[in-house]
Please model this.
Amino acid sequence: MCMDVPVPQDYLLSTNELCFERDGRRLFEGINLRLKAGEMVLIEGPNGCGKTTLMRLLTTLLSPTSGALCYRGEPLEKVRYEYLADLLYIGHQSAVKLALSAEENLAWMAASEGIHDPKSVRAALRSMGLGAVYDLPCHQLSAGQVRRVALSRLVLTRAKLWFLDEPLTALDTEGIGLITGRLQEHLDSGGAIVLISHQDLAIGAVRNYDLTKRCA
Amino acid sequence: MPELARTPSFLAYVRRDVLLAYRRLGDTVAPLIFFTMVCTLVPLGLSPDPQRLSEIAPGIMWIMALLATLLSIERIFAFDFEDGSLEQLLIAPQLIALPVLAKIVAHWLVTGLPLTLLSPLLAMTLSLPTSAYPAMLLSLAIGSAYLSAVGAVGASLTVSLGRGGLLLPLLVVPLYMPIMIFGTATVFYAVDGLHWSGPLAAMGAMLCAALALCPLAAAAALRVTSA
Model:
């Protein structure tokens, strides 16, 4: 039911003719994405063409009007739990609580993935250049530093599939360098990434996916 | 499924929400201050006559408790919606009803429980007979938990509409009416020297039903509204 042609298991994520309508208006149709381990897809398109909506469809926050999602060749209805456990999504709102410190924020995010290790939380923050401010409440940090707190999840996570919606917003060049390095590492270790970004990234194996062609 | 142990426990969610409420202490105590202020205004505005006050005290206390809960119930999901935590909750590999129940419990711990503990002080200013204190404490403790649980459903339905809407009170106040009737009845029975365990038992039953059903309803509503 998911695919007309059986999808090999090595596709971490594949979609079949995804179509999404909002209030009777078709946003896009015929989305056929295939994502293997070690691959990164960069979703492109002008503002308002539905990049974030597509991302929300892929992370199951929204349901497609028609079409199907498959995880390792299995339809999502069967493997929803496994899919969600293998997925990391960082959206526009980075889920950082401004009332909590960087350390408390990251510790919670790590705990939601089952990682309870204060040392590795500290180490992750240090590696993101937040070593000096880890115990300050996040409302005292700059926008870029808050972004870094959110992105330090990337250092800790065990998830294979990353969905990042404009992760580089507000980051300085050093921060962008750190994140690019981490993305490359993830790809090298067999992970996969779906990314929305308006900045050019110095990463080798990027496949561009132009959403404008799919817009209705 | 052994992997279920990966997600934070129920208690971890409660602790987190209580900690967040503590860090935003100003917001958290606002309903309590409101509750206290209005209850102390009543004797000034109506009449300081103990006889007249004791007749209306149960009703006043209950109405104010209800309004104080209404003031704060919106925040149960609003902050999480704004900063994206709600999205993360929705894609966590677990039942959402569990953290939702934890949020209800946390909301009661920072609103309903302090309100209940504060009530004897205010009952004194309203000249409520001391014999009615146990009934009032118990009815407010049970009733405010019900208010949090049912309010969470309303808050989950209106979370994406932004703040300050009148829709939330419109949705939940009708659902608050039954518990309010039994709540004030419990205290009135105690004031009149009757057995008040009957209406209190009815409230307990309503609370049980609310705790079982409201997290499921709120979780389902969150899936739709925050999408």
In short: The two ends of chain A are 25 Å apart (CA to CA). The first strand of chain A starts at residue 11 and ends at 22. The longest helix of chain A spans residues 173-188. Chain A touches chain B at residues 56, 59-63, 81-82, 84-85, 87, 89, 91-100, 108-109, 111-114, 137 (CB under 8 Å).
